[in-house]
Amino acid sequence: MLDRRGAVVDERIVARDTAAAGISIRTGCFCNPGAGEGAFEIPEPALRRTANERMRTLDDYLDVLGLPSGGAVRASLGLVSNIADVEHLVAFLGARYADREPDRTGLRPRERC
Predict the structure, then answer these.
(1) Which of 4, 14, 30, 100 could form a disulfide with 36 if both were Cys (CB 3.0 to 4.6 A apart)?
(2) Which of the residue ranges 7-11, 30-34, 85-89 would you say has the lowest mean pLDDT?
(3) Can you say whether residue 35 is alpha, beta or left, with left for phi > 0 and alpha for psi between -120 and 50 degrees?
(4) What is d(CA 64, CA 51) in angstroms, rounded to the nearest whole number?
(5) What's residue 68's pLDDT?
(6) How confident is the model at residue 83 (pLDDT cuts 50, 70, 90)?
(7) What's the gap between Cα 28 and its chain centre?
(8) Is 31 part of the annotated catalytic residue set?
(9) Beta carbons of 65 and 50 less than 8 angstroms apart
(10) Cα→Cα distances 56→21, 63, 68, 105, 110, Å
């Protein structure tokens, strides 16, 4: 998810906002670290720098790498899903993030992946 400036929206914000709107999606860390490195285009020298840093939390690690988020958003369709569900999700996301700054209020720290 990108905001109005084209910046990545923290997956925790999307999880909170969609849940409040009664929309079920999946969010969280990439299960495979290589997938996260690829998705965020983290260069190898940046990863090597983290080996010498003392980090206590996942948020510390993301800060060292300069990442805006630690995971992804996934909307899965099932047997009972229909086009109206997809249109509702797309409309919600557009209305929520296309023209305004995401609200970071109340985000809990990432304790684990």
Answers:
(1) 30
(2) 30-34
(3) alpha
(4) 11
(5) 83
(6) very high
(7) 7
(8) yes
(9) yes
(10) 33, 11, 18, 22, 11
Q: Does 20 score more than 80 pLDDT?
A: yes
**Catalytically annotated residue among 31, 79, 83, 84:** 31
Angle between helices 11-20 and 83-97 (to 10 degrees): 120
CA proximity to 17, closest of 82, 102, 113, 84: 102
Place of tokens 């993301």: 62
Instruction: Compute the Cα dihedral for 8, 13, 15, 20 and give only its sign.
Output: negative
Rounded distance between C-alpha atoms, residue 36 and residue 70, angstroms: 8
Whether 19 has a pLDDT exceeding 90, the answer reads: yes
Are residues 101 and 87 in contact, defined by beta-carbon separation less than 8 angstroms?
no
Give the model confidence (pLDDT) of 26-35 as tens digits: 998 877 778 8
Report the candidate in 31, 99, 110 with the shortest Cα–Cα distance to residue 67.
110
> Strands (DSSP E) along 6-83, which ranges?
26-29, 71-74
